[in-house]
Design goal:
Keywords: Actin-binding, ATP-binding, Motor protein, Myosin, Nucleotide-binding. The chain contains 25 helices and 18 strands. Among the domains are: 6-187 and 356-379 and 569-612, Kinesin motor domain (Kinesin, 3-Layer(aba) Sandwich), CATH 3.40.850; 616-677, Alpha-Beta Plaits. The protein is of the alpha/beta class. The longest helix is centred in the middle third of the chain and has 32 residues, at 383-414.
Length: 680
Amino acid sequence: VGVQDFVLLDSHTSENAFLSNLRKRYQENLIYTYIGTLLVSVNPYKELDIYTVTQMQLYRGVNFFELPPHLYAIADNAYRVMCNEYNNHFILISGESGAGKTEASKKILQYYAVTCPTTEQLQIVRDRLLLSNPVLEAFGNAKTLRNDNSSRFGKYMDIQFDFKGAPVGGHILSYLIEKSRVVHQNHGERNFHIFYQLLEGGDKDLLCWLGLERNPQKYAYLIQGRCAKVFSINDKNDWKIVRKAFSIIDFTEKDLEHLFGIVASVLHLGNIQFEEDSNGHAIIRDGTQIKWISKLLGVHLSILQEALTHRKIEARSEEVLSPLNVDLAFYARDAVAKAIYGRTFTWLVNKINSSLANKDSTRKTVIGLLDIYGFEVLDTNSFEQFCINYCNEKLQQLLIEMTLKAEQEEYELEGIEWEPIPYFNNKIICDLVEQKHKGIISILDEECLRPGEATDLSFLEKLEEKVGDHAHFVTYAFTLCILSQTISYPEKSIREGTISCFVLKKIKHLIRCLTSPWAMLVESKAEDIVKKSLMSKAVRSTQILKSIFISVATQFKNSLTSLIEILMSKEPSYVRCIKPNENKEPGKFDDSLIRHQVKYLGLMEHLRVRRAGFAYRRKYELFLQRYKSLCPATWPHWHGSAAEGVERLIKHIGYKPEEYKLGRTKIFIRFPKTLFATED
């Protein structure tokens, strides 16, 4: 149905032709299509019988283009090349929320678990690799409007293989956990799964020890989205899976006691209410929640109360306690809850890594799986979404650069003249965000550190001054209120909406709140689980404060730079996941939604690069084997070299000189119609 490889489309520059081919295949449950070696995957929103062990064995060890497009072909090709050439690979899986990225990542892991060599000892490693997923999903995934199991963090997992090709270990890096979800969810969304799983599935004694009730409606942090119970999610069953996973990943009962104690403490924190005393200062009248936190974290009650309602400030070279008003006390409470959860997630990833670590010092090869959040343009784009979109621009830059590099290297290797390829280079977008002293992130850092009050408006004015005339930057008109209206904007532009998410939420509140001794106190008392201070005592030093708040904006940029360096050292494979409709409805193909994703996933750019020059290339041996029956001289057996056989074959068929080129080991065919005529 249609063409299995977009490279073979006659109208390869037509977006309509691209969508038409995708639609035809999707309507026949053919959810996979190639662009060269890149796999486009459309979420079917239903179970398909294409992931069986029989299917896995079918794709095992088979030439990449011999069978129809499949995720297993991508996985197997990366594995075979790694084993044969003893080099490292990565598979980049990207797409919008609900497009099927996490499922694709799990399917690849399952493929390696079934098809790679194994021993009883290696089975433990495989089980841990597979079962790390439900644990990370419990703490890092949540129900959103677009997806009932949306990853709210980016994940890069290295699977380590020994010289026999057996998986022997792994390592996980996590990126930008959405901590704001801990304290606030939009209507129709939930907090992280683990909170609901604990309440629904935890046994009576555990909940009693934690001071929790089964009903999620009792907890302020769980009900803001007004959908604590979701028909499609079985929290009780998921709890059982997570508990089993913990035991196999090597968590001790002591570890779990600390972990669930902190999860419960976050829920208790959310239920703390502040009232105003006669001086306008925040006080806690009902100490029930504080008592539970004191018990679970081992912190003295009076210290907790003081820490939540006061902050330390410097006065005449001395530290004094300054009371917080009610608003600031609520900000402090929420900031602490987010910080605790973020650090706990980091600890969880480190703990999983220690169980996956391979102590053997012999050389390993790796296949990395990068399951990264997708580019999205919302009516109101938060700071997190800005970082996510920036991340996708960087990865798109990497994709085009590595594809171009691979194409150029193949041409040179084969002795074919390289023709420069016109394409949109999004380096100009990346520079707009990340350029030192001139980019948006640097401007944000400067604005948050300048003397005086940093506001949303002052940040917007600074952007207008520094990058206002940039071809790919658009701002709303200045107003003193928070801006939320939408405007039409160019396809590749940085768009400013609710700036409050940038300065106020991410920086100003941190300055006000995390300097509270409470942030340091909870961490030092619970260091078994969280390991490092939420906010070091040195936070009082202006210099250290400065470096910390620069890192609020630049930390993601730095970790992304490190990720790009990791990926640049490996051979790439790509899976681009597409969401066919907003309602998770099987068989429905929403043209405008998919057209939007095709643009922002850079699929037309990738196709343009792959199609420039020659649409099709194959090893002489494979081409001759496929088409030798078309020429009397090559059928049934050709007794010379494969290159000579192909040359004889195409002359007999009648290829014109402008339709092909002969390389050192491959034939290059310029037009799809030439290949299709040969097939016919």
